[in-house]
Write a structure and sequence with these properties.
mainly beta; Immunoglobulin-like; five-stranded antiparallel β-sheet; 11% helix; Spore coat protein U/FanG domain-containing protein
Length: 164
C-alpha cells in the first residue's frame, strides 16, 4: 500500500508541475549609443635627420647629407606648404651648427639632390596638394661648404612648419 501511495504522490506532483503556469524569464533592453568623430588634421608621420658624416678638413670637398619629413592629412587638402626656419643658430641669413665651445659650421639646405633650390630661412621646402590619408615624403638635401673648421661635435635644430 505504501508503494501505491508513493506512486500516487509522485503522479500528483508531476501533474501539478505540468499544470502550473510556466515561469517566464523576463527580458529588458537598453540602447548603447556608438559614435565617433574624424577631425580634419595634418601631422608629421616621420622625420629623418640631416646628419652629416665626419668632416675631414684636410680634403678640399663639401660634405652632403639627405634628410626628410613625411606628412599626412585625414582629408584631402590643396595648397599645403612646408617651411624650414633658420635653425637655432642662424646668423646673418646663414644656418649654422654649433659646438659646445660655441664654434660654428655653416650649412645650407636644398630641395634638390644636385644642391639647387636652396631653402632660405623660413623658406618653402615643399608645396602641393595632399590626398586623404596618403603620406607625402619631402626630402631635403644639406651641404657643408669646404672649410677649416675647429674640432668638435656640432649640432643644430631646424623647426619644420606645415601650413594647410
Amino acid at each position: 500500500m505504501r508503494f501505491i501511495l508513493i506512486k500516487l504522490s509522485l503522479l500528483a506532483i508531476a501533474v501539478g508541475v505540468c499544470a502550473s503556469p510556466t515561469l517566464a524569464a523576463e527580458t529588458v533592453t537598453a540602447e548603447l549609443n556608438v559614435s565617433a568623430e574624424v577631425v580634419d588634421t595634418c601631422v608629421f608621420t616621420s622625420v629623418s635627420p640631416l646628419g652629416f658624416a665626419t668632416i675631414d678638413t684636410t680634403k678640399d670637398t663639401t660634405e652632403t647629407s639627405i634628410g626628410s619629413v613625411e606628412i599626412a592629412c585625414t582629408s584631402g587638402h590643396t595648397g599645403v606648404s612646408v617651411t624650414l626656419d633658420g635653425g637655432e643658430n642662424a646668423s646673418g641669413g646663414v644656418r649654422s651648427m654649433i659646438s659646445s665651445a660655441t664654434d660654428t659650421v655653416p650649412y645650407k639646405v636644398y630641395t634638390q639632390a644636385n644642391h639647387t633650390g636652396e631653402i632660405a630661412i623660413d623658406g618653402n621646402a615643399w608645396s602641393g596638394n595632399l590626398i586623404a590619408a596618403v603620406a607625402q615624403t619631402i626630402s631635403v638635401y644639406g651641404m657643408v661648404p669646404k672649410g677649416n673648421y675647429l674640432l668638435g661635435t656640432y649640432a643644430d635644430t631646424i623647426t619644420v612648419t606645415m601650413n594647410y
